[in-house]
Amino acid sequence: MLIKKFRYLKEGIRAMLDYLYKKLKFLQLKNPKINNETTKEETLQPELSFSLKDNLNVLKKILGSSNDIIYREFSFGSRLQINAAVIFLEGMTEKTTINETIIKPFMYESKLYNLENESELEFGNLSIIKNALISVGNVKQTSIINELLDGCLSGDTIFLREGSKDALIIQSKGFETRAIEEAKTEAVVRGPREGFCENIATNMTLLRRKIKNHNLSFETMQIGTQTRTSVCIVYLKGVVNPKLIKEIKKRLNRINTDAILESGYIEQFIEDAPYSIFPTVGNSEKPDSTAAKILEGRAAILVDGTPFVLTMPMLFIEGFQSAEDYYSRPFYASVVRILRFIAFYVSVLAPATYVILSTFHQELIPTTLLFTMAASHEGVPFPAVMEVGVMMITFEILREAGVRLPRPVGQAVSIVGALVIGEAAVSAGLIGGLTVIVVALTAISSFVVPVYTDVISILRIMFLVLGGSLGIFGVGIGFLVVLVHVVSLRSFGMPYLAPLAPLSAEDLKDTFIRTHLWNMFTRPRTIGQQNLKRQSEGTKPEPPKGTSNKD
Amino acid sequence: MKKFISVFIKIIVCIFIVLNLTSCWGAHELNKLAIVMGVGIDKGKANDMVDITVQVAKVLDIKSSPKGSSGSGGGSDSGYLNLEEKASGISQAVKNINRKIDRKLFFSHNQVIILGKDAAETGISKYIDFFLRYRENRLLVWVIVAKGTAGEMLDIKPGLETTPGRSIGELIRNQEEDTSLMPAVELKDFASRLMSKTTSPIAPIIEVSKEDKKKTVYLSETAVFKKDKMVGTLDKKETRGLLWGINKIKDGVITVSMPNNKDKVDIETTHVGSKITAEIKDNKPKMKIEIKQEGDLQEQTSAEDFANPKAFAILEKSEEDIIKEEVISSLKKSRELNADTFGFGDIIYEHYPKQWREMEKNWGEIFQNVQVDVSVHSKINRTGRITKPIMSPDK
Question: Chain B contact for A335, CB < 8 A?
């Protein structure tokens, strides 16, 4: 009888969920189709012609008459018989490169060199120009208009000449970028300070400087039909699992959107669990930690225009690891690790626990503490759930305000916040003093694990509602649901809770504690499967043998 | 989009409905609770009536008193409130109290159950039932018998603690952990002895001392129950004899008189283990109490040097005699009261369940005549921080 009832209930719930799912799908289908084909229609003519004038006209038509595009036409040769043009974007290019190494050779040196057979210069020959005149490292010859446009728009100079079907793309990128600065999000006391910057080439260099190995591979592609953003997959050949790279490429190729403005765009298009509050793609602002992840067998994705580099696969434990753990000695690093786990639990469960204890399970509080709690709650008009909830929301507002506001105003916000939260609310009798302590502790703890700060905020509210309505039972159920969910997550095929949930005893060397570096013989089993051995054994530092201390 | 919003609203409504189904059962805010710190039970004047005193902590007074004792205001500065009620039963009384106080009585933090002497002498099982049955009550509450009325005990201002209930509770906790002069009886121990057919429950007696005009409470004796009625008391010496036997001593000082009857040596107990075993020979039960005690020299009033094995042996011997005497005196009193305080009956039942069935009928008689061997083994380990006495021997 009961089982039958239960089955009905189950079917009912399934029917309800199916209905909701269908509704949502239907609604999504109803959305107007996004047109991503806009850029393609402009390239009516895929290749250049022999006439310079025609070519210029075609390019002008495509590029439009924007002020920052310079069309410089000139003539060269001993009798100035050859017409040519360079096209470049002002601001994206380095002026000295164009003036000194592209235009100048034509105007002065083409005469000075007194090329033996002038006829070589004529009839649209480009190779002599490429070989003898232009002293720039990277020159590419092509006739495809799309390639020319990509080159021009990314800061290269296009050289066109009369009578040639081909054009040259001469590297002349040079634009104002932010210098390499200290990483803002991952500050360290000990360790390299430099962080990634917005320029992808600089970022690639930064990584290359960390890993001077020919196996370090960069694979660049353009994503975003409008923005044509450079996206670069970085990995260490021989260490990374080739299947992972294949999978990443597959997911990147699937992206068909108009704009990639930040690596977060890519993250949201390739992540494994888009409906989960837990991130399954990691990010870092520091070359050293990115390099460490690449060396463990992960792949990184650099995106032009952002200092945040994606790393994948991401494991849950990564949020608790900091670059500094490996630079400082293992003992304190391990203590800090454990502290981070405690802080994570405190920041997720402390408000809910406080509410549970003070509204449902007063018998669990030690008597003296109960007096304190009761006294602080005396005369407070709201139930504990509301009290904590309001305080938490206030804190989130203040945090958001502090982040968004310009620095000088931000300080004012923090003063007002501290006054409002700390003093006034308590002395006005709106909020109990203990609530303030709990919320403040929670807030501070959540910053100890910066990767999960946003996850924590959501979980905290969820647990607060559960705790406030169902007591310890609700929090228990909620905890189990979250646990089951986290265990079920995968990041690029790797179990999210990796060294813990499919327990790999050897990988525990770098979870709750961090052992000595000379003790970490292998890469993490789940990620570095391809090439497990990291170092040979017996590298433990020891005093020299055979010399007994006689002092 | 409109459809999506309507679906979204439906989901939200579902969540709210589900949350309402729980209706927050069992939730009570802290400022809606009256925290009970002690319960006193006295026999009512009329038959079958009970006078109950419930002590409730006034948390605001407790917390604000150390801040400014001068200008706190708001009536009495005592941190407690005693509510009295007469009813036919405890739960009835508790419900009646809720007519007087605007908050829900919360029993989970109750420290003590004080039974008035009259109530104890007329039978207490009917009062104890509520405390065992009601969900909020803990089984770790101390059970005490008051010499006088229980209500009186709960109204004597404690010296250091905030409420009398807690003060008395801590007093007994000290007995358990540090002093071991009086038994510390938790409700679960009391109830299990009460449920036993032969073993008699015990409880410490609390008394008001009127020295120095200021009223204070102190633990004076031990109440001995037969079934659920109090039949007599054990004095200090007899109490400790009992505690030696039932292995409840954790600490305590034994004063040994020297042969010259003038000087005294105090030995502090550091470790005790005791065991009662039963043996049946020729259909006659025989009890054996084995006590192993270890101690340190704590104080001596003479100039004699005890820091040698020979002196230790003498001290140990006299210590053994003292302990043995205490146990025997306690046993004698128990026989006088015909109350099996040591729990011999249960021990025989555990070891010889078959023979026990026959013995059970005339246990009272057997208990009076059962042979009890008391063997004590004492050991002195250390002489404290100094080895030789500070006094020089008189010449």
Answer: no
Query: Which residues in B lie closer than 8 A to residue A377 (C-beta atoms)?
Result: 29-31
Strand partners, B256: B265
Q: Same structural domain for residues A271 and A341?
A: no
Mean predicted lDDT score pLDDT of chain A: 85
Q: What is the pLDDT at residue B214?
A: 78
Nearest beta carbon to residue A375 from set B27, B63, B136: B63
- Identify all chain B residues contacting A370, using CB atoms and an 8 Å cutoff: 30, 35, 109
Q: How far apart are CA A62 and CA A65, in angstroms?
A: 9
Please list every residue in chain B whose beta carbon sits closer than 8 Å to the beta carbon of residue A9. Answer: none
Side chain identity at residue B256, one-letter code: V
Within the 182-221 window of chain B, which residues sit less than 8 Å (CB to CB) from chain A? none
Structure tokens at A469: 């309505």
User: Where in the sequence is the domain holding A482, given as residue range(s)?
Assistant: 327-488
Measured between alpha carbons, how far is A13 from A24 in angstroms, rounded to an integer?
A: 16
Residue A530 lies in a domain: no
Residue A377 to residue B29, Cβ atoms within 8 A: yes
ipTM of the complex model? 0.83
Summarised one tens digit per residue, pLDDT across range B20-77 is: 655 456 778 888 889 999 999 998 888 788 899 999 998 888 776 554 444 333 345 5
With contacts defined as CB-CB under 8 Å, which chain B residues touch A24? 4, 7
pTM of the full structure: 0.82
Domains annotated for chain B, with CATH where assigned, are 27-234 (no CATH), 243-395 (3.30.300.210)
Higher pLDDT, B138 or A112: B138
| pLDDT number for residue A33 | 52
pLDDT-derived band of residue A39, with 50, 70 and 90 as boundaries? Answer: very low
Task: Give yes or no: residues A370 and A316 share one domain.
Answer: no
Domain boundary residue, one of A448, A464, A488? A488
Residues 6+ apart with CB under 8 A from A275: none
Highest mean predicted confidence (pLDDT) among A67-71, A107-111, B234-238: B234-238
A341 Cβ contact partners less than 8 Å away, ≥ 6 residues apart: A320, A512
Q: Do A371 and B31 touch (CB under 8 A)?
A: no
Q: Which of A503, A483, A186 is nearest to A321 (CA)?
A: A186
